[in-house]
Design goal:
Elements lengths: L4 H5 L23 E7 L25 E9 L3 H12 L6 E3 L8 E9 L14 E9 L8 E13 L3 H18 L2 E2 L14 H9 L3 H10 L7 H13 L2 H7 L5 H12 L4 H6 L3 H25 L12 E5 L5 E8 L5 H9 L3 E7 L9 H13 L20 E4 L1 E2 L2 E11 L2 E11 L4 H9 L10
Parallel strand pairs: 1-4
Antiparallel strand pairs: 1-6, 2-4, 2-5, 3-4, 6-14, 7-12, 8-9, 8-10, 10-11, 13-14
Helix pairs in contact: 4-5, 4-10, 6-7, 7-8, 10-12
């Protein structure tokens, strides 16, 4: 099955299934892509605003952190946080989230506001954003409170009939179920589908080349973005005039304009321009580059015929919590003596194979996988011995482990229908934190062009 050029740019070079894709498109409307966050205690944020009082044991007694449910429609998560902070007249670092949600979607998630009070929430008045206060917590929300996300996604404009549609979706799901889940690729959102340059910016930051990173982020155009944005980037690329670019760049390019505001007065302070961005966005650049390398490792493992649900000598393996979440900080390396026992545990779902996320704190695999990783790093011209982790990428640059596969929970296909404009189907499923719905949809749809397919 041929892989799209965009997928290859992101290191996603293989499919895990051989079944035919259904084609079609997602996100024809914002309501076609709904995401609801689930915390480790089972609490679920609802797009309808319904909440549970005992989320994480919160209470009405005033404590340091106010817990809220945020429902947003067609908004970037980081921009929403910035807007909420502005309306509450607080530093945005006082607002903590467990995970970033899709922008072109309707999403519900939790957040905490340090020293926030319920009465102040009524001040937040932003179009297509609702904020519901729940209660107070002793600790701020973080990634470790997040279990995963529930998705409700409509695939539309499918050209095959309803019966064939059902058959192909079932065949794909059965293939994935037989192998234990989906390959745990980092999805398109990690890199930017319309303009997939985030990992390239991260690579330049890690190398300490902030001028290159700046010009990639600000001035590298894409044929898929709005013509006004594309023209503004092209003009900056040709002129290098940041003050003029500040006049040309449309207001919706908020993060670019933040950097341009700084560069207009400090044209040589490229590192300083990046520091003006939200910390989470600074980290995302480096993490996107790490994600690209992981995707390449995973693709090469599949291409060279090694299983994702069976360990080889030299592989990392990690334990699995009862919730299904992998314990990536407690890893073992497979030896000839332990291989048989470990693979029995992998088969039983008690352990999973994991690959490194490259960073100064993370070693490569050994054995055949280690050779694959070294080959990829050579091709990408990455020298781990001279890897720079500067002040903008300390957190993102540490590295770690990520499992080769992730589970699909509660998968359902419903509301399959058809008319003169084509067939459509609604899919519902739950994925654990850090996994991407578009990676599962990619296996089901097998899009020729992920951009026109709505990724």
């Amino acid at each position: 099955m041929p892989v799209s050029p965009l997928d290859k740019q992101l290191g996603i070079e293989v499919y895990a299934t051989k079944s035919l894709g259904v084609g079609g498109a997602i996100r024809e409307t914002v309501d076609d892509f709904v995401v609801e966050e689930i915390l480790v205690d089972g609490s679920r944020a609802s797009v309808k605003g319904a909440v549970q009082y005992k989320i994480l044991g919160c209470s009405f007694q005033r404590q340091r952190f106010l817990l809220c449910v945020l429902v947003k429609r067609n908004w970037d998560t980081l921009i929403v946080v910035k807007n909420i902070a502005k309306q509450l007249e607080i530093d945005q670092r006082r607002i903590q989230i467990a995970g970033i949600k899709d922008a072109k979607a309707v999403t519900a998630q939790h957040l905490t506001i340090e020293n926030g009070v319920m009465e102040d929430i009524v001040k937040v008045n932003v179009k297509d954003i609702q904020l519901y206060p729940i209660g107070y917590l002793r600790e701020a929300l973080s990634l470790y409170y997040l279990l995963g996300n529930c998705f409700r996604i409509n695939i539309k404009s499918i050209t095959i009939n309803q019966d064939e549609l059902k058959t192909r979706i079932c065949q794909t799901f059965e293939e994935l179920k037989a192998t234990g889940g989906i390959p745990n690729f980092f999805g398109h959102q990690r890199f930017g589908t319309i303009r997939p340059i985030t990992h390239l910016v991260g690579k330049a930051i890690v190398r300490g080349d902030f001028k290159e990173a700046t010009m990639l982020f600000l001035a590298k155009p894409s044929i898929y973005e709005h013509p006004i944005s594309r023209q503004a980037r092209q003009q900056l690329q040709e002129s290098g005039n940041f003050r003029q670019a500040l006049e040309n760049f449309p207001k919706q390019l908020r993060f670019e304009r933040i950097m341009l505001n700084h560069l207009a007065d400090n044209p040589d302070d490229f590192a300083g321009a990046f520091k003006r961005l939200p910390v989470k966005l600074q980290e995302l650049f480096v993490q996107a580059h790490q994600s690209f390398l992981f995707n390449r490792f995973l693709s090469e493992r599949v291409k060279q015929g090694y299983f994702l649900n069976k360990s080889e000598v030299g592989d990392f393996v990690v334990g699995v919590e009862r919730s299904g979440l992998p314990v990536t900080k407690m890893a073992k390396m497979v030896t000839p003596e332990t291989a048989a026992e470990i693979n029995e545990r992998v088969k039983a779902g008690k352990m999973r194979v994991a690959l490194p996320i490259v960073g100064v704190k993370q070693k490569l695999s050994q054995g055949v996988m280690g050779q694959i990783e070294k080959q990829v790093l050579e091709e990408e011209e990455i020298n781990l011995e001279s890897l720079q982790v500067n002040e903008l990428s300390i957190v993102g640059g540490r590295g770690g482990l990520r499992t080769t596969m992730t589970l699909i929970k509660d998968f359902k296909m419903q509301n399959v229908s058809g008319n003169t404009s084509g067939s459509q189907a609604e899919l519902r499923f739950m994925l654990l934190r850090g996994s991407y719905a578009t990676v599962l949809l990619r296996e089901i749809m097998k899009p020729v062009d992920p951009i026109t397919a709505g990724y």
